[in-house]
């Protein structure tokens, strides 16, 4: 009987202590080291992530195109030598005015407005690349946040499992004491040992998930996989005060997918204008200086104006115009699809945020204190032989499940906020 009550007193003392998510010792064992700041990891990913850097270089490359396509073609320099009466060089140079040596240049000149339109089209394409870079940056940073929150949740879950293992050990000791005293059967002890083994399995699986998540996070940060482990800070609930309409307005004005598609629509409109311009002819100017024998004849000067006549309109220019108009219509439809997609994704993330916030309140104010009160009542009943071990174990598992689901819901809540920040460009924390 003394062993029985000693075990019961140990269990009551453990439950009477403040019940955080985990003890400090368990937290230290589950996530050693100083937690990394999320802001530092985001800055590191923005600097080092290869996908972000590649998108940035694509943007910089596109910025070099407008000047190229809006500049006149290079002039052509010509050297000419005309012989008279013989193929030998300079034949007849001194006895006829028809033989000459000439220098000249030729310049192609597109119809007025074409170069300007080509430059504007290239500028819109550069703006599209800018929005593509911003989209990649936001996606990567959102992935960093999601993996960071998942890593924090898994670290907390490990702490909970370690702490619950200690609690279950006390329950097992109590069952063993009752068994030795003849007040319980061996099945109670075996059941407690089975739950201990299940906890070990859960700890191993959680550690495996933590290792996988950390590997993903290091990949996003462009760190070597052999670099020191990353410890995440404990999750905290972030309140969101904006309404869905406010978030949707922010997404409509700053979402890079929408902005990039808007630039595509503008680019397609300029391409239609250029297709109309291609019905107009381009020009060429050639100037030549011809020199004969300077002691007998005067120099010749020739200025030639040429014009390319677009005679294949039906086969080339009209088809190009139809293609440009179809591309513009497709870009406009794509813009509407992007807007609907962003609105739908934002609605889903907003629903997850609002519903998970309600669940967190239910867990804190209802399920967690109720589950703990039920366990304490069951423990008291078990002490006075008014409840069997299976009922006590069931109430113990209820406490574990409620606590674990609380932190999982909090992780989902923070991940939804990260997705909202990606879509809207807002900083909600």
What would you note in describing this structure?
The protein is of the alpha+beta class and 429 residues long. It has eleven helices and four strands, in the order αααααββααααββαα. It has a four-stranded antiparallel β-sheet with strand order 1-2-3-4, with no helix packed on it. A hairpin with an 8-residue loop joins β3 (283-291) and β4 (300-307). α1 packs antiparallel against α6 (114-180) and α4 packs antiparallel against α6. The longest helix is centred in the last third of the chain and has 71 residues, at 313-383. The two termini are 55 Å apart.
Short description:
With 429 residues, this protein is of the alpha+beta class. Helices cover 69% and strands 8% of the residues.
Write the layout of secondary structure elements.
Blueprint: H1 2-16, H2 24-30, H3 38-48, H4 50-63, H5 65-69, E1 76-82, E2 100-109, H6 114-180, H7 186-221, H8 244-254, H9 256-277, E3 283-291, E4 300-307, H10 313-383, H11 389-424
Antiparallel strand pairs: 1-2, 2-3, 3-4
Helix pairs in contact: 1-6, 2-6, 3-6, 4-6, 6-7, 6-9, 6-11, 8-10, 9-10, 10-11
């Amino acid at each position: 009987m003394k062993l029985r009550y000693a075990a019961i007193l140990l269990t009551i003392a453990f439950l009477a202590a403040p019940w955080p998510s985990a003890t400090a010792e368990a937290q230290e064992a589950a996530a050693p080291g100083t937690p990394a700041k999320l802001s530092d990891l985001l800055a590191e990913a923005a600097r080092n992530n290869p996908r972000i850097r590649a998108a940035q270089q694509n943007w910089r490359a596109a910025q070099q195109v407008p000047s190229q396509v809006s500049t006149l073609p290079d002039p052509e320099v010509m050297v000419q030598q005309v012989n008279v009466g013989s193929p030998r060089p300079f034949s007849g140079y001194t006895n006829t005015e028809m033989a000459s040596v000439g220098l000249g240049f030729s310049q192609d000149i597109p119809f007025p407005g074409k170069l300007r339109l080509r430059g504007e089209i290239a500028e819109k394409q550069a703006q599209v690349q800018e929005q593509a870079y911003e989209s990649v940056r936001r996606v990567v940073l959102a992935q960093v946040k999601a993996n960071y929150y998942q890593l924090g949740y898994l670290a907390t879950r490990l702490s909970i499992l370690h702490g619950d293992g200690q609690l279950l050990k006390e329950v097992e000791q109590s069952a063993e004491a009752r068994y030795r005293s003849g007040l319980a059967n061996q099945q109670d002890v075996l059941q407690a040992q089975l739950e201990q083994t299940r906890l070990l399995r859960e700890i191993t699986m959680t550690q495996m998930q933590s290792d996988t998540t950390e590997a993903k996070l290091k990949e996003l940060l462009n760190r070597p996989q052999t670099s020191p482990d990353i410890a995440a800070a404990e999750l905290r609930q972030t309140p969101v005060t904006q309404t869905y309409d406010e978030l949707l307005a922010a997404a409509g004005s700053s979402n890079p997918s929408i902005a990039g598609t808007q630039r595509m629509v503008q680019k397609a409109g300029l391409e239609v204008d250029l297709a109309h311009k291609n019905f107009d002819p381009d020009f060429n100017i050639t100037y030549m200086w011809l020199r004969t024998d300077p002691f007998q004849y005067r120099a010749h000067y020739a200025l030639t104006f040429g014009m390319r006549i677009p005679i294949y309109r039906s086969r080339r220019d009209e088809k190009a115009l139809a293609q440009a108009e179809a591309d513009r219509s497709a870009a406009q439809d794509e813009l509407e699809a992007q807007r609907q997609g962003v609105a739908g994704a934002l609605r889903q993330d907003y629903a997850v945020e609002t519903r998970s916030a309600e669940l967190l309140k239910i867990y804190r104010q209802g399920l967690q204190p109720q589950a703990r009160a039920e366990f304490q009542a069951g423990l008291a009943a078990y002490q006075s032989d008014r409840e069997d071990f299976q009922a006590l174990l069931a109430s113990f598992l209820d406490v574990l499940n409620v606590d674990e689901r609380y932190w999982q819901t909090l992780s989902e809540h923070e991940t939804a906020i990260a997705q909202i920040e990606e879509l809207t460009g807002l900083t909600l924390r």
